[in-house]
Amino acid sequence: MNLRQMECFLAVADELHFRRAAERLMLAPASVSEAIATLERSLGGRLVERSSRRVSLTPLGAEFAAAIRQPIEDLHRAHRTARLRSVRHRDVVIAHTPELGQLVLPRLVEFGAGVSLPAWRPVPMHTPQQLLAVADGEVDIGLCWSAPEQPAVTSLVLGEYPLVAVLRATDPLAASAEVSLTQLRSRQILVTPGANNPYLESQFRAGVVRAGIHRTQIEEVARYDELVVHVATRGHVGVHPGPIALASPMAAVVFRPITDVPDLVQICIISHPEARFPSIEPLVRSLSTIVEAFDLGAALGRTGQPTP
């Protein structure tokens, strides 16, 4: 008996779609298929029927799903409760996206030199993985970009920022105080992987469609620091949440707010509602103070002149 195989089966039973089940579990679809095939072999019968158009449960599959759902939920609840209560006796786990980790955590170390903070350790993790880990009690605090509402996750918004165009200082668009996506119709656009935050990705893609930009113009690069280097060396335009401007020391690159993506990007702290013990509150307050002190005005070049 394998718990992960049964989790994969329940996800497929809920979604009736292998790709959506895999996305929910943060696994490859092939891994979910193999898990269910192995489970079926161990049970000696088919649990799922698949055709080119639909996925359905067999009678055995429906009966098995009903039998295991509550016990598995009880196991997860017991694990989550024990994990959350143990925060009093261990280091607080702070998950962070790579960009926000580089931008915020060094400041948290400096901040902790002047105030009494509980022991903490960082874990790099993109926003979708943070949401799952916080809900499961494996992470105490998540520091992430805009996060959609999720069961068992409480979100505290620390700040809101525009998406920005990342430009060479010599780019003609750098002479303006702001840039619109419609001005980028003829340009190659660099972004970080959409899978890192599907919620932000959907916002950006909606603006791209409205601006008439073809998807072939958009190229993904692995990390935001690579994006800045690509802009400086290749002359393309990057698009990224505004706080990137605070983390980039390159004088050859400037940042301009994008005007026609209406939703602002948020920096959030996420946590489990049952995890807000007094021991983590000083960390939450410190992170809030650090982000609230961000000043993007000069870095974003609001004067209309390229940032020197």
What is the residue-averaged pLDDT?
Answer: 86
Which oligomeric form is depicted?
A: single chain
- The CATH topology assignment of the largest domain is D-Maltodextrin-Binding Protein, domain 2
Q: Strands of the largest sheet, in order across it?
A: 4-3-5-12-6
Return Rg in Å: 23 Å
Annotation, overall tally of beta strands: 12
Strand content: 15-25%
Largest sheet: 5 strands, mixed
| Helix and strand sequence | HHHEEHEHEHEEEEHEHEHEEH
Distance between the termini: 62 Å
- Examine the secondary-structure arrangement and name the CATH architecture of the largest domain: 3-Layer(aba) Sandwich
The total tally of domains equals 2
Q: What low-confidence regions span 5 or more consecutive residues with pLDDT below 50? A: 302-308
Class inferred from helices and paired strands: alpha/beta
CATH class of the largest domain: Alpha Beta
Helix share of residues?
Answer: 40-55%
Shape: flat
